[in-house]
């Protein structure tokens, strides 16, 4: 049986929204965990729900990943550069450039 494709749009029903947030958050953290184990990479995930609840995952720890990220980062007026990657801050989002 195929999975049904759903459109990516805001979910208005509160119960459906909470279930989707929980399942997606758990799936994201599981994928981050798998990626960190398979690649031995430092990985950090921070999710803040609309209700203000914080959910984090970090390997080896979120503090270590954040410290490592900012210790190798130079911040310009609207561009963030880390090593060979560059991100531009546009409309409250970092976009890879």
TrEMBL record:
Q: Which organism is it from?
A: Prunus armeniaca (Apricot)
- Entry protein name: MADS-box domain-containing protein
Q: Name one GO cellular component term.
A: nucleus
Q: Which SMART domains does this chain map to?
A: MADS
Q: Where in the cell is the protein located?
A: Nucleus
Q: What is its main location?
A: nucleus
List, alphabetically, the SUPFAM superfamilies matched.
Answer: SRF-like
TM segments? 32-55
Query: Locate the MADS-box domain: which residues?
Result: 1-61
Could you tell me which PANTHER family the record lists for this protein? Answer: AGAMOUS-LIKE 50-RELATED, MADS BOX PROTEIN
Which keywords label this protein?
A: DNA-binding, Membrane, Nucleus, Transcription, Transcription regulation, Transmembrane, Transmembrane helix
Alphabetized InterPro entries for the sequence: TF_MADSbox (IPR002100), TF_MADSbox_sf (IPR036879)
Q: Which GO terms describe its molecular function?
A: DNA-binding transcription factor activity, RNA polymerase II-specific; protein dimerization activity; RNA polymerase II cis-regulatory region sequence-specific DNA binding
- Claim: Transmembrane is one of the keywords in the record: yes
């Amino acid at each position: 049986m195929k999975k049904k494709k759903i459109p990516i749009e805001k979910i208005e029903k509160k119960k459906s929204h909470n279930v989707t947030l929980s399942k997606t958050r758990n799936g994201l953290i599981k994928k981050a965990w798998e990626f960190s184990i398979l690649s031995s990479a430092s990985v950090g995930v921070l999710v803040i729900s609309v209700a203000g609840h914080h959910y984090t995952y970090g390997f080896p720890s979120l503090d270590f990943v954040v410290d490592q990220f900012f210790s190798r980062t130079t911040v310009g007026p609207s561009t963030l550069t880390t090593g060979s990657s560059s991100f531009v801050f546009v409309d409250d989002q970092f976009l890879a450039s």
